[in-house]
Amino acid sequence: MTYTSDEIFMNAALEEARRGREQGGIPIGSVLVHNGVIIGRGHNRRVQQGSVIRHAEMDCLENAGRQPASVYQECTLYSTLSPCDMCSGAALLYGIPRVVIGENVTFSGPESLLTERGVEITILQHQECIHLMRQFIVDNAELWNEDIGE
Amino acid sequence: MTYTSDEIFMNAALEEARRGREQGGIPIGSVLVHNGVIIGRGHNRRVQQGSVIRHAEMDCLENAGRQPASVYQECTLYSTLSPCDMCSGAALLYGIPRVVIGENVTFSGPESLLTERGVEITILQHQECIHLMRQFIVDNAELWNEDIGE
């Protein structure tokens, strides 16, 4: 069985999501990839750090550290879930040209805004990403609503 | 001399901006106000914490802690500078209905996106906000470009 590079990096984001879940957190993970190398990884830390800004993609970008614009502009951001307004805005701020989304079935962010601004989007509809979020939302509806501002 | 409440809260955001500058950081400040009370304040921490996500508004939201959606939906976010894509996205995520901007002369974020999504925007064109940023950008062009992804 062969895997595409998108599947390989989405699996790394999924590892992050599972790590978050094991910590009692919201199971969303993300990796930032530059020229085929993961330069940042992270997961949602609302529960673990009481954070309202450390969504998975934000945690990933923070963990990647301060990068030159020229690096961001060659990166792909992977997230197990469709990025929300904040995380989409972060991708736009740093001019990240490509976003790969695990699934947008359980939640869908402003994907059309990303597309309009020239970001290439790939949606994998990865069954394990969907399963992880579906189970989490059923078990933790209130926490989930807090995380998406509802 | 009398002050409007917007001027009073913008002055609090300016205090944060000056605090950031005194720490050697980027002089942008923000406060989050709920029913006339400041419930969060912050400033840009790119330099101080090596952070790529702690713009002033993000730092302010983080310092306000986990709030119910019902609180965010009654808040006003003050920033000494027009919020960038990321910070505007954070305001949208949490359904903050009003954003007061110190100035949008030295930098202008996606204000039309905020307006389209129903956020009320007030731009003060506050002379001290403009002066603080102009001076900073002249003295630190490279750092400033990094902060806005350029």
Automatic annotation (TrEMBL), chains A, B:
Query: Which Gene3D superfamilies does the UniProt record give?
Result: Cytidine Deaminase, domain 2
Pfam families per the UniProt record, alphabetical: dCMP_cyt_deam_1
Entry-linked InterPro entries? CMP_dCMP_dom, Cytidine_deaminase-like, DhaK_dom
- Every copy of the DhaK domain together lies at 1-150
Q: Which CDD domains match?
A: nucleoside_deaminase (cd01285)
Superkingdom of this entry's organism?
Answer: Bacteria
Boundaries of every CMP/dCMP-type deaminase domain copy: 4-121
Q: In this entry, which stretches build a coiled coil?
A: none
Q: How is this protein named in the record? A: Nucleoside deaminase
Q: What is the lineage of its organism?
A: Bacteria, Pseudomonadati, Pseudomonadota, Gammaproteobacteria, Oceanospirillales
